[in-house]
Amino acid sequence: MQVQAESRALQVVSGLAPRQRGVTRRTKRFLNGASMEQGRRPLSCGLKEGKKLMQIRSYRSDDEQAVIDLWFRCDLVVPWNNPRLDIQRKLQVDPELLLVGLEGNTLVATVMGGYEGHRGWINYLAVDPRRRRCGYGRLMMDEIESRLAARGCPKINLQVRANNRDVVAFYEAIGYKVEELVDMGKFLSHDPPYEQS
Ligand SMILES: CC(C)(COP(=O)(O)OP(=O)(O)OC[C@H]1O[C@@H](n2cnc3c(N)ncnc32)[C@H](O)[C@@H]1OP(=O)(O)O)[C@@H](O)C(=O)NCCC(=O)NCCS
């Protein structure tokens, strides 16, 4: 039995617990020295007063390049996942659970949800770096949670890569809890490398 390096992800699971603020001791241990300075709300989140808030809708085919560009800007693209194929596969299974967030015509956020009949899963949560700490991440998660709950999904699981520990504080702030699990994975096929069209 082999546990692959990229599979050593933290598993954080959403329960029905009330939303939590702050960082738990367990999370502090997990962060293991990661700077919480990065977690402070910046002086301005970049939104001008009165500016229209982000609108959320399901993915459309003409969003493809903007979505992939955002995933690169958010460091979510890894060599073993071809983002174009990830989108195409998602369009075969519950495509309405791939959401995009827009300010006007500008795509600023994404989240991909899934439900296999037991647990809901979250992937590709991304907010444009220039739009962080505006509440957009929380809004995207609220929307995908509502859509999963509407399908009867009782609980959401998600994984955080070991090199992305800072994001745990975000998930805790919106009610997710770290669970002590060994995360495992096995590839059934391998994606060809992504090439920009
Ligand atoms: C994680 C991510 C989606 C958060 O998006 P965001 O729009 O900045 O988050 P929000 O503004 O909705 O934050 C909600 C709360 O989470 C907490 N939070 C958000 N980012 C945080 C951070 N870096 N450190 C600590 N707490 C954080 C805060 O409590 C915040 O509330 P506040 O603004 O009132 O203080 C964004 O940082 C991102 O795209 N990261 C890169 C991609 C990624 O890692 N995705 C997750 C893969 S598992």
Could you please describe the fold and organization of this structure?
This protein has 197 residues and is of the alpha+beta class. The chain has a single domain, classed as Aminopeptidase. It has helices at residues 25-31, 64-73, 83-92, 136-150, 167-173, and strands at residues 10-14, 55-58, 98-103, 106-115, 120-127, 156-160, 176-178. The chain has a seven-stranded mixed sheet with strand order 2-3-4-5-6-1-7, with helices on both faces. The N and C termini lie far apart (38 Å). Residues 1-9 and 14-44 have low confidence and may be disordered. The structure holds coenzyme A. Coenzyme A is lined by residues 38-39, 41, 74, 76, 125-127, 132-138, 160, 164, 166-167, 169-170, 173.
